[in-house]
Structure formats: C-alpha cells, structure tokens
Amino acid sequence: MGENKKNWPKALANAINLATSVAAVIALGILGGGWLDKRFDTGIVFTAIGTLLGVATAGKIMWERFNEISKTGKKDKK
C-alpha cells in the first residue's frame, strides 16, 4: 500500500500522457480530414476517414501502453 502512494505522480503523468496522445491523434485526424474536404470539396469523406484513422491510432496507442503497463506490473511482482 505504501508503494502505491509513492507512485501516484508517475501514474498521474502516465494518465495525462495517454489522454493527451489519444486526444491529439483523434484531433489531427478530424482536422486533417476537414482540411482535405475543404481543399478538394468532397463533403465529409476525408473527415470521416480521418476520424476513423485517428480513433484506430488512439486504440493502438492505448493497447501498447496497457500492454507495457501489464508487463511492468508482472516484473514488479516477481
């Protein structure tokens, strides 16, 4: 229990890092798609594609981070 109280700054930094990364890739997908839609006058085609790519990339980032955390947790228990 004492170790968990000592690690809260690291856990908070990891959570902020993950949230920022996820928000950034989704926003870039939406904004990039919107820019392409305006440039090529295609309605919302590129915005939809950009959003889907952003969400998929965010999912990949979360998957990798959670796997990294679970591997670190298993090493700490041994």
Structure notes:
Helix content is 91%, strand content 0%. The chain is mainly alpha-helical. It has a domain of 26 residues. α2 packs antiparallel against α3. This is Putative F0F1-ATPase subunit Ca2+/Mg2+ transporter.
Residues in helix, %: over 70%
Structural class: mainly alpha
Radius of gyration: 18 Å
The coarse overall form would be elongated
**N-to-C terminal Cα separation, in Å?**
17 Å
> Would you identify the regions where 5 or more consecutive residues have pLDDT less than 50?
none
Total number of helical segments?
A: 3
Could you tell me the mean pLDDT? 92
Order of helices and strands: HHH
Main sheet: strands, sense, barrel: none
Beta-strand residue fraction: under 5%
Strand segment tally: 0
Précis, in short:
Helix content is 91%, strand content 0%. It is mainly alpha-helical. It is elongated and about 55 Å long.
Highlighted features:
78 residues, mainly alpha, 91% helix
List the helices and strands and how they pair.
Layout: H1 2-6, H2 8-40, H3 45-77
